[in-house]
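Progress against Task 2.4 (sequence-to-structure conversion) is shown through the following example record, which the project officer requested during the mid-term review.
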Amino acid sequence: MRTSSNPAFRNLPTSPGGYARFGPAGQAPAGMAGAGGMFGGGGSPMPTAAAEDRPLTVDDVVQKTALNAVLAIAVGIGSAVVGLGGIGILGGLVVGLVLALVIIFKQSTNKFLVLGYSLAEGVALGSLTGVLEASSSQYAGIGFQAILGVLGVFIGMLVVYKTGAIRVTPRLTKMVIGAAIGVLVLMIANLLIGFFVDGGLGLRSGGPLAIIFSLVCIGIGAFMLLLDFDQADQAVKAGVPARFAWYLAFGFMTTLVWLYIEILQLLSYFRQ
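Structure tokens generated for the chain above:
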């Protein structure tokens, strides 16, 4: 299984196999010892007594991801309306970061941790959007536009993946991971330099360079979704337990949160 640019997906159980497409759920590819072998079963069939131990399906991933996305949006709207401000932004980001680290390093499939992460990010992003919209009438409705933008990117990359217009290969994976690391380094450098030089490197100043940088970040986020679709597809083909749908949903949410922030940032430049 190829590694993903999403740190959450890189911790999923791995198994042999090449490029996979969405297909019949619960059927492992030929030549595989079976999902039981990945979890200490020595090649024995996967237990099916418990619902969470049955093979993962595409529907499982879709339902869990949709639930987390709807929760984040609903909580975000509430946070924006209430006007939590800086407390909501800081509190949501800190709680979300802590939960994300726990989920990633413990490879947790606990649904309450995943839902908690989505709730925390919803509070943070909703509060951020509320502060932005309340600061000036020129930002009215920017949050709704950002959500539509994320939805558009998600659907667009899903179509690209399903049609095979862009195939996920090891080379593409390395390029996307390298680009993601590169923009992360630039973000940190811009933040640090900003303490000494007004505007830092100009990556968030709202000028032409900032617009280009945001477009690049959105493009990288879109390709991360492409890699994440492939990783989820391979997990379904490998027949991992259904409980891993929560882990996959968390992985998708981390990418969607990043896309929302970048699209919101880009829209704010055009509104200025």
